[in-house]
Amino acid sequence: MIRAQGASTDIGAIANLPLLWVLALSVLGVILLQSGVYMVAVRKNAAGAGMTEKEVFQAFRAGGVAAIGPSLAVVLVAIALLPLFGTPSILVRIGLIGSAATETASASIAAGTMGANLGDATYTQDVFLVALFAMSLSGACWMIATLILTPMLSRGEAKLTQVNPALMAIVPSAALLAAFAGLTVTELPKSGYHVLAVIVSAVIMAICLWVARHRHQPWLREWALGFSIIGGLVAAYLATN
Amino acid sequence: MRTYTPEQDALFADYTRTTNRWGRLTLFIGFVIATAVPFIVLVTTDLGVTLGQVLTAFLAVAAVYGAFYVIEPVTYFPILGPAGMYQAFLIGNIANKLVPSAIVAQSTIEARPGTRKAAYAATAGISGAAAVHVISLLLLVGLLGTWIVSVMPESITDVARLYILPSILGGVMVQLIATLKQPKSTAIAIAVSLVVVLLLVPNTPKIVSSFAIALCVVLTVAVAWFLRSRGTVDEDEPEQEGSLIN
What we know:
The complex is a heterodimer.
Chain A: H1 11-15, H2 18-45, H3 53-66, H4 68-85, H5 87-95, H6 100-113, H7 125-154, H8 165-187, H9 192-214, H10 219-240
Chain B: H1 6-44, H2 51-91, H3 94-108, H4 116-151, H5 154-180, H6 183-200, H7 206-210, H8 212-226, H9 233-236
Helix pairs in contact in B: 1-2, 2-4, 2-8, 3-4, 6-8
């Protein structure tokens, strides 16, 4: 039993419990197990689609190579988040359904309900745990929805696509814009350094997206968030030191 | 459409059965392990976190993402098929990693979309992407990242901890505005956020400020819906994929 005061800000003491490492590695193991079983199924039944063994391997390799760039971009963001959540939680949250932006937003919203901010003196062990709960339960909802909906969709029963198209076009994007606008505005009054980090990050993203489009460098889209985060942190470091 | 022999149909049925059964099982195990993480922390430490705090935090998050829990599976199903669904919603990174990998795999072996060969190619391609995903996380984040953080001077990790959130948000905000291309909703969202966060929160009790982001979301959706351009719906609306987040 680890004795911890909930008011302590030593996140590392509880974020690196050995059991969490075991769970994080198991999660990655489950992904490998799934891919392994799927590959065996494809190879065994390839003839069912007139597909050769060589084509199966080619498809596997092509998919893997295509994923290298996006994976490295995700790694960059994940490492920047390590001081906030510790390695095991990052591996589980970034390794499974979700993305860096989704998870950080969830954690920040969760901390907000306790009147706390991620990373500063109010970010206690209690806040970390509540944020971890909120991220995990939110991720769980996506998985449960998929487990329930996929068989229904396979049988053609779920006709959710027939809901009002205007509603579908407006509500999700308005919700996303509002959540991130709200979170961003919340950062501004905290300090001039926060304002600086937001602005530098936003400017770098704008430049990356402009270059990606007008100079036809699509890879830059994947890397843009990583560069923006590094830029924002470097600016904050230079300003505070 | 080419026709298949009964033997080939049997093989494809076997593939469908295996991927469905194992896909469901592995996604369920992934769900159980990932959801267990916070409970493990709860029972192995003596933190004073209450059920009420957890529920409040979850509700605030669900107010933002609730619609996506249902919309994303429904939207991705026609693209991924049942086998790919269980892979995609286990691994995440669907739009930026898995779907591109599936498409590259299909075009590499020249499989026409909608055929069985395309389904196989997508499964193999996503499996390849999954392998790269796991290896990169294990080596570069699990080993290298942990080491980097441990040797990094405290002044740097302190900055990373304090300013990671504004550094992410500035970029994500611009990315969202650029991808969604919804100037009206963007303007409403920013205006609502300024009012709620800067005017309402400092002048209201904690019960309001706790739900500030949820309030931003509800108000923005309501105003955007009320001010929507009626009549010419689909013409100017962006692709639905633009507003997916996984």
